[in-house]
Amino acid sequence: MGTSAASVLDERLSKILGDWLEVAVTTALTTSTSVVSTNLNEHDDANDDHFNTFWCYITDYVNAGADRKIYDYVTSGGTCSVRGADFTDEADKATVRISRHGYTAHLQAINDAIRELYPNLYRHLEDRTLVTGQMLPDNSFELWTSSTNPSLYSGSTDATLTRTTTAGYIRGPLGTTSMLVETGADDQYAYIDSDTFPRLLDLRGRTITFKCWARPTDDDEAFLTIAYEDEDGTETTTNSTTSCPKDVFTLLEIEGLAIPSDITKIEFRFRAHTNGQDAYFDSARVTGKLLQEYLLLSDFADGTVLQVYIQTESAQDAPCDDLHPARWARVYNWYTYSDGTYKWLRFPETYQDNRQIRVIGIAPLSTVTDFTDTVEIDGAKVDLLIAYAAYCLLRNEEDIPSAEDTGRYASRAQRYLMEYYRLLPSLRMLRPSGSLILPRY
């Protein structure tokens, strides 16, 4: 299924309400609170004040995103005086949308509809980044608070971390991401430690293996490092010795490292050796302890896990290194729980290490803020969303009009709600079947 941009949803909502008007300004915006467009003369019935109390939204160029209420309109010259601060002076002639409710109110109604329509409308989730027996959270580097700030990993002083989706620079499943470590000095790295993820201290007293796929920009410039501290704060480090040619992915390895039982901290690093020689890292794993619980990606936090599978066949030494496994076994009797911050998947038993875990589920559609943000539906499904968004918009604003208008708003809201119910049987999305809870003998 395709996607629909916030700009399109706003247009569809405006049109269903009979409130659609988009024109280009005829004088570029300046450091003032005036929007000038003689194109408005075609819609103003030659009356001053025609657009008073309407909203004006700037869609593009320097002032894009400004949503201002019009307090005075003069038909001569098509001049709208708006509330708020002065615009920024610009040379380009922007496009503006004029509406009774405003872009901000439209988006609030669309987002309300997105939340309230779940699970009649949803986005499909499928994750294959989890690996059995693997201790690292988000081992495929999918969770980012911004393009340079991974949620659970940090960078050394002169390292810049960047979320990467470019074809050829990811090693995991289609549609996933990798982490670029860019250096501002020698031996810079991304890392995760037991201070951030305390569960890593469960590796005390165990023999572990640390592996990760890496693509350096020059020969032998990517390394893995395991660092741990004892009670005195003394740090011991072990580095990978795997040769890795430039511009291709190689599996870096530290195998069979015995971790002392008295360590107080452990850290796993993804390192680029020489200043200016960067490296991409993807699909990491740390094994050495039997596991039944795995941290789910944040997309599942507000969603529902419906099916879970374990990889059963492989052409690689480690099954999880297959890019697209052919055979899977359905898992039953699993469950999910939240610790208040993260959502976890718990299996009824342990499984052999280094097998991919396939998690299928659904989650609410993504909410939108910016004009270019997208929602994961298109086609006729948008009609269902917009009908309910129109209901939400009028419901939200029902208390704003004068008493004599409140009934009219309520009546119009019910009209769009009835339209939603008319469309629902044919346009609702059928969710995948969930897993049965089977008796165990």
Features:
six-stranded antiparallel beta sheet, 441 residues, alpha+beta, five-stranded antiparallel beta sheet, 4 helices, 33% strand
Gap from first CA to last CA: 42 Å
The secondary-structure class comes to alpha+beta
Helix content: 10-25%
**Strand residue content:** 25-35%
Characterize the quaternary organization of these chains.
single chain
Average pLDDT works out at 92
CATH superfamily of the largest domain: Galactose-binding domain-like
Q: Rough shape?
A: elongated
In CATH's first tier, which class of the largest domain applies? Mainly Beta
Which segments are poorly predicted (pLDDT under 50) over 5 or more consecutive residues? Answer: none
Number of strands: 27
What's the tally of helices? Answer: 4
